[in-house]
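Bench log. Compound arrived from synthesis this morning; before running ITC I wanted a structural hypothesis for how flavin-adenine dinucleotide sits in the protein. Inputs:
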Amino acid sequence: MVIGIIGGGASGMAAALAAAENPSAQVLLFERQARLGRKLQATGNGRCNLTNLQAGETGYHGDDPQFPQGAIKAFDPQATLAWFGQLGLLTVAEPSGRVYPYSDQANSVVDVLRFALEKPNIRVITGCEVSKVRKVGDGFSLTAGEQQYACDRVIVACGGLAGTKLGGSMAGYKLLSKFGHHSTRLRPALVQLKADWGALASLKGVRANCHGKILRDGALVAESTGELQFTEYGLSGPVIFEISRDVCQGAGQWRCALDFLPHVQEAELLRMMENRKATALSAEELLTGILHNRLGRVLTRAAGIRGGYIRELEQEQLLAVCRAVKAFEVVLTEPMGMDSAQVTAGGVITDAFDPATMESKLVSGLYACGEVLDVDGDCGGYNLQWAWSSGRAAGLHAGRETL
Ligand SMILES: Cc1cc2nc3c(=O)[nH]c(=O)nc-3n(C[C@H](O)[C@H](O)[C@H](O)COP(=O)(O)OP(=O)(O)OC[C@H]3O[C@@H](n4cnc5c(N)ncnc54)[C@H](O)[C@@H]3O)c2cc1C
């Protein structure tokens, strides 16, 4: 029995290893890029946040947020870590639940998978794009380059559109559409947000801890606490990724409200600033030592303070600085595009797939897993967990002798 797997990313490699657990299954793993796991290698800023201990009942989105539950329960973060342990990967969990390789190198994750794939019943074919899949009798014919490959079962593990430079493409959606599978609208998720604020250029590269809220016409849409990073075009960093889903998708004014001192009450901040009145410091130093210097100066200016000394500031002016620090609002214009996004929101409609096996309900022997499906997870390891769990479910089932 031959199982053709299209895509040698996270879910495709998990599927190949699961299918090959049946020694009589012959696995063909096709990867269009020169090597396996190219995107995986870039994950988590090169550290690869491979799962999150909290991944489970919550943290997943799509038209049917329950769809991923079956596969994730069957192969949960603990089972995933035990599996990686068997493959030889040492991991470490952070207090937040995010899990990384102990080496802090995404390469380690790709390497253990690559080594595990060196099995007699797995053939890895890299630099080989599958351009066509046809149903032939009970099986399939795959066209890759000039070659045709006959397969009994096919797993589409082509990933989503996000991260275009790392291999994100429309390929999986297109291959599945030929079999009657439709997709929902694709949007970038876990993505930087563009903002309309003149001071951004001077803040480029500044990092700050903050509580961020997305507001649509003043109403709260999403909120989170974590690290923010300013870029020349807008806002980035984990806190922004977490609240970026579906921002600016719809009418209204979209804003991001930022509290740069979420653990300090306004009264306490006011006291800290009042204490500086006894100094000979210039007004632009009001927040020095409290926030990043550049951010402190920008916020002081944004509160209307221009020149002079701290000792000359009125109470009203100190209160204005407090508001700038605790409730700064930036107008959002749009999210960055798919090439910058970490994950695709939307994808192939999951109603037409079995949540336990990832098999198509339209075409027997056809499977899909990973990001190509309409499932996207929160920031922090949820998306890779989905790739491992769905890939394993598809591989185990496709690798069985009889269905
Ligand atoms: C910069 C970045 C950082 C990220 N960091 C994290 C993180 O730390 N933690 C986390 O959980 N998630 C992270 N993600 C998301 C995560 O990487 C993806 O959700 C996950 O890789 C999806 O797995 P997949 O197998 O579905 O797709 P992919 O890993 O994208 O693999 C799909 C593979 O299929 C190949 N392919 C496509 N079409 C064909 C074809 N026709 N023929 C042959 N091969 C084909 C592609 O080249 C690709 O290698 C990050 C994403 C990006 C872009």
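What the model suggests: The radius of gyration is 25 Å. The chain has a mean pLDDT of 96.
ITC booked for Thursday regardless.
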